[in-house]
Amino acid sequence: MTELEAGRAQALTPVRGGAALHRYRDVLIALIAFAVLASLPLFTGSKALLDFVIRCSAYGLFATSLNLLVGYTGLTSFGHGMFFGLGAYSFGLIMQKLGVPIPVAFVATLAITAMVAAIIGAICVRLKEIYFAFVTLAFQMLIHSTILSWASFTGGDQGLRGGIPRPAFLGIDLANHVHLYIASCALLILGLLAMRQIAQSPFGYTLRMIRDNAARASFLGIDVWRAKLTVFVLAALFASMGGMVMALFVSGAYPEFAYWTISGEGIFINMLGGVSTFLGPMVGTVLLLLLNDTVTRFTEYHGIVLGVVILFFALGLRKGLLDFVAEWFARRRDAGEGRHA
Amino acid sequence: MTRTRTPGISRRSTLALMGAGAMSLAAPWVARAQSKTIKIGMPTILSGRVAQLGTSSRNAVMLEVEKVNAAGGLAGRQIEMVIRDSKGQPQEAARVSRELVNTDGCELLIDAEASSGAFAVHEVARDLGVFCIHTNSETSALTADPKQHIPNAFRTARQGVHDSIVGGSYAAAIAKAKGLKKWATCSPDYAYGRDTTAEFTLYLKRFAPDVEIISESWPKLFQPDYTEVVTKILQAKPQALYSCLWGGDLTSYIDQANIYAMFGQMEVFAVNMADYTALTVVKNLPKGIHSGNRYIKTFPTTPENAAWGDAYKAKYNEYPTNWSWENATAVMLMAEAAKKANSADGKKIAETLKGLTIKCPFGADGTVTMRGDDHTLVGYAIGWGTTIPQEPYVPEVKAGDWKTIFELEAEWKKSKGYT
Question: CB distance from A293 to chain B under 8 Å?
Answer without folding.
Answer: yes
